[in-house]
Amino acid sequence: MTLGERLKGYVGERKQAALAAEWLERWSERKEPRKGKGWTLDTVTSSFSRCFNDQPEGVRFFFGDRARAVLLFDVLEVPPDARDELLGLAELAMKTGAARPAQLIVDLTAWTGDRALSDELFLAVEEQILKPHRKLLPAVLVITEEQYRWLPRTL
Fold first, then answer.
1. Cβ burial, residue 23 (10 Å; 0-12/13-18/19+)
2. Among 8, 68, 106, 110, which is least packed, fewest CB within 10 Å?
3. Nearest to 144, CA basis, from 104, 108, 106, 102
4. Which of the pair, 101 or 53, is modelled with greater confidence?
5. Closest Cα to residue 58, out of 68, 112, 35, 1?
6. Are 122 and 150 in contact (CB under 8 A)?
7. In this predicted model, what pLDDT tens digit does every residue of 6-49 receive, in sequence order?
8. How far apart are CA 22 and CA 41, in angstroms?
9. Is the pLDDT at 98 greater than 60, yes or no?
């Protein structure tokens, strides 16, 4: 499961806008100096939505600062024993820019040939590997610089 999917499990019947309002109110009550003093409810609500949908901007908003992440966990009532795993998922998402690490890695560097052969190779990879295994996305294709010049836009 992705970070967003895991976090949605803690929302329950509560409304996202209400959770965002609670988060913003509790963040505003903090005594220590804080960044983002000018955040609006719309900003926080949008960040909730982005985070729950595994978009990098939302993940960075809440998990780019440990205090914001801890407050998010408090608002969502995430049990203490689940927090480290969620922090790990967030760190991975921020490092890779993706909600999940690559599930499928295809190394094509051993294949050599001219453009016509490369076109055949890419068509075969798309038709026989990528399309039938869409649920394994994201995928990584490892290719040479020469192959990159002929890589079709569909990949």
1. buried
2. 110
3. 108
4. 53
5. 68
6. yes
7. 999 999 899 999 999 999 999 988 866 555 557 899 999 999 99
8. 10
9. no
CA 58 to chain centre: 9
Amino acid in position 59 = V
Backbone angles phi, psi at 139, to 5 degrees: -120, 155
Please give the structure tokens belonging to residue 55.
């978009």
Q: Which residues, 6 or more positions from 65, have their beta carbon under 8 angstroms from its beta carbon?
A: 35
Residue 144 to residues 18, 48, 110: CA-CA distances in angstroms? 50, 39, 9
Q: Within 10 A of 76 (CB to CB), how many other CB atoms are there? A: 19
Q: Tell me the pTM.
A: 0.63
Closest listed residue to residue 73, CA positions, set 65, 82, 134: 82
Packing angle between helix 56-63 and helix 66-76, nearest 10 degrees? Answer: 100
Nearest to 72 by CA among 27, 32, 108: 27
- Locate tokens 């290719």: which residue? 143
* Cβ–Cβ < 8 Å for 48, 58: yes
DSSP 128: I
